[in-house]
Amino acid sequence: MQTKKFLIIGISVALLFFTSCGGSSDQGSNETGKSNSTEANSAVEETASAKGIGPIAHVEIGDEIDEQLAMQGKEVFESKCTACHQFDERYVGPPLAGITEKQSPEWIMNMILNPEEMTKKDPVAKALLAEYMTQMTMQDVSEEEARALLEYFRQYDAGQ
């Protein structure tokens, strides 16, 4: 009886995990894990200067990377984002390498801060949701943390 109870609980936990985290399908990706989806890529190119939907209307960024802010962003990324995102490979969510070259700073921060509304109203976010079939969840990230994440992404992209 005890074994059956633990088996049922284990299966329930596994199902909950897989349904809440989504899945990572290799469909539509090449050997390096980069997406072949023309829908998402064309939507990204089409709205690369769009600011997205959310609280961020304008972001001041300098020409130089703020190393301290980027370090803070790395800490936030490692604690809140790595369960779903990697830089150079498809994971639960899209790879993030090059994101600062594809999207505006405002769009990136709005996606971090307002993912549900973005996937309902923003064409790029809609296309990403359709491709990855997993809703980006709210991670209780503050505007300051989102700005630090943006700086970390800028630092990563500058180093490539």
Distance between the termini: 56 Å
Alpha-beta classification: mainly alpha
The gross shape turns out to be globular
Helix content: 55-70%
CATH topology: Cytochrome Bc1 Complex, Chain D, domain 2
* The CATH architecture: Orthogonal Bundle
Instruction: State which percent range the strand residues make up.
Output: under 5%
> What's the CATH C level?
Mainly Alpha
Biggest pleated-sheet summary: none
User: Runs with pLDDT <50, length 5+?
Assistant: 12-49
Number of strand elements: 0
What's the alpha carbon Rg, rounded to whole Å? 17 Å
Overall domain count? 1
Mean pLDDT: 79
H/E topology pattern: HHHHHHHH
Task: Draw up the topology in text.
Elements: H1 2-21, H2 38-46, H3 67-80, H4 99-102, H5 105-113, H6 115-121, H7 123-132, H8 143-158
Helix pairs in contact: 2-7, 3-8, 5-6, 5-8, 6-7
